[in-house]
């Protein structure tokens, strides 16, 4: 049955690629309101394709943003697990357009890769799952597992609509695990499985001093400068080794197990690569942790922006009336965004001198996500990668946050499996985004292996 | 001779006031290019008035900005001192216009004061000097001292044109002392003499980290955040008592003599007034110095503005590529702007960690100004105040900087005497600016007393 599916897929590479081209040609940029109709069009294209290939109840469900494409195939029986498949059909804006070698919405194959906006993030990966389903249904008339699809259109611009959608449709989305196809390899031939994502907590801190900008000649030396106060607070957030000084901040941080450290140490990440990516020569941060550990397994407290007083050309001799800064903390298991925010707030207030007023405005956050790696789903993913690429995946802790994954974890309480096939430097958010055809076709096979393996096949 | 001059002035109050109204009616706002012709018109009005009353060689000399009104009367003889009279005919903008009770360029007398833009800053004070000269020339055909006038038109907007003018016309401006009529009383009946002004040194500090704003999920924990670095630098500029921590910064600061401290202690400045003016409840700064001492006799290092990263609404999870801030130091005798700036620069660079690049861009500065109070000019000023108001002036160190005064001090090497007659809350830069008629008329008499006293009369 699996063999027949694989054979069917291989026989239809060209048609599948042509269908991917159709979807890639729709400029479904979710952030730009002038592309609202294009997002709708991409959703409808997917509904039509899913319906044609045998997915039931395929439809575009409204949200507060762009529609979510839903569909299901639930005929594998009660004993078979149900997989909720997540992806997104919206894409990033295309600026700067002048750097594209071919137009972003006219897909082109060059040197074995499809070039187009959305090629790897995420239309190419959505389509390899959809075409895996199509191959299995066409070859055997059935899927080894029950399947629900949730393909959203707001991933690149606004996490709120999908979060609301998940909360509102908990019953519809009921499943045993989530399959996310939106990540990538460490290098060609080196698959990886991110098994955790960092959470997020954030706040804006506003410091108010004098009732108006003051003449620094008339008052300088007597008025506490709000920018200085804010700077003192920011400076007190870290010690000279990059440790966060918020009392209790690390209390709930789950320690890295020796085998995790060993696994992360096996992740190839040469300093030269970090230097090239960041443009910085010398890394910074907790010296007792490696770069990969700092990004994936350690929390941060970052100032994302700051402002206050005169920012124009030349000089203005004032004591600014106000200053402000935005902060986000990246959280790891088992930190809680609310607890972390409260500790941040308490610490900032404890640093505030009596001459100024401090206002702290919380920003939306999300908890960290962590999937145990000894689950049957993760083991099935390992097996799928090994079978298709002949190499075991590397387990990685991801540094980023995908708010909807936290929503899924918190609302649906099911393991999240990230199977991803992008290669580094695919330009997911940059000009000349591309996706290697080999990854597209092999990814399709990996998904088929995964589904069969999940069934215990 | 002085008596006849005073009598003449008193007999012509109404005409002098009418002439002040004429000058106040010209909207000579130097900052706004649409008022360029009005500035020219105000200069020409003054040239005509000076010529009519007997000042020689009165003319509007071009500068890189608005013209300087020059004139002279040098017939007092070689044994008489020469006084360079400084003032300005340009005025501040009038926004917010809606808050004015009468139009800013339609002078009106209400409750014993002239209301108009420029009434006190500085047309009213320029005119009281000019009318003092007129009274003395009309009553006796001569002045007790030689006089040169330098009435500029850029004071409210740009210090450069006059600074260039002074450097370019050193010979023309040669004099024994400068009389500045552009300051004020501490309170009705309480004249004061500012005998020092703070200098200024400034720089912009730019911190560069990654080559672009980085995703804080992918890199947070490994990249030193430029805003954090800048904050650490700013936080290190002061200790918790408000002392500046730049090594050597205070080395050249002239200590306050016991008699100066006593004089400053006599300056009435209730905390309630400071609170009302600043909108702050609790003062800040070096605890071993009073508020007046901190403002007038102590240097500062102030951050005037800061920026970096994301300043918009909501959040953006980035590590900013860059951050910057503007700084100015207010300097006191005998600090040097270049030395202070070098120490600031060295200190900032010493605080910079190796993970970032620091660029320091100097801004224009000026040295502090200090006139010894035991000069004959200052003693003449004391006598003039005492004679007209029956109260000795309070000696005050001013906190602000008037760059042209530093130029005068450095280029002409002559004592600067600030005789000023504005009252507090005259709205010099605000709506409903006004100047009390009594101050206008008595100020005129004080100037006549001052000139006679200078001659030794």
Features of the shown structure:
homodimer, alpha+beta, Aminopeptidase, 2 domains, six-stranded mixed sheet, 14 helices, 35% helix, 21% strand
Short description:
2 copies of one chain form a homodimer. Helices cover 35% and strands 21% of the residues of chain A.
Q: How would you portray this structure in words?
A:
2 copies of one chain form a homodimer. Chain A is of the alpha+beta class and 457 residues long. Chain A folds into 2 domains: 2-197 and 368-455, 3-Layer(aba) Sandwich (Aminopeptidase); 201-244 and 299-364, 2-Layer Sandwich (Alpha-Beta Plaits), CATH 3.30.70.360. Helix content of chain A is 35%, strand content 21%. The first copy, chain A, contains 14 helices and 18 strands. The first copy, chain A, has helices at 2-11, 13-24, 36-53, 123-140, 160-168, 216-219, 226-235, 258-265, 271-278, 291-296, 337-351, 376-389, 403-412, 437-455; strands at residues 56-61, 68-73, 82-88, 108-110, 113-115, 146-152, 177-180, 192-197, 199-208, 214-215, 300-309, 318-319, 322-331, 357-366, 369-370, 394-397, 416-418, 434-436. In chain A, the strands form 5 sheets. Chain A has a 6-stranded mixed β-sheet, with helices on both faces. In chain A, strands 11-13-9-14 form a 4-stranded antiparallel β-sheet. In chain A, helix 4 crosses helix 14 (437-455). Chain A is globular. Chain A starts with a helix and ends with a helix. The mean pLDDT of chain A is 94. At the A-B interface, strand 10, helix 6, helix 7, helix 9 and helix 10 of A face strand 10, helix 6, helix 7, helix 9 and helix 10 of B. Strand 11 of chain A pairs antiparallel with strand 11 of chain B, so a sheet runs across the interface.
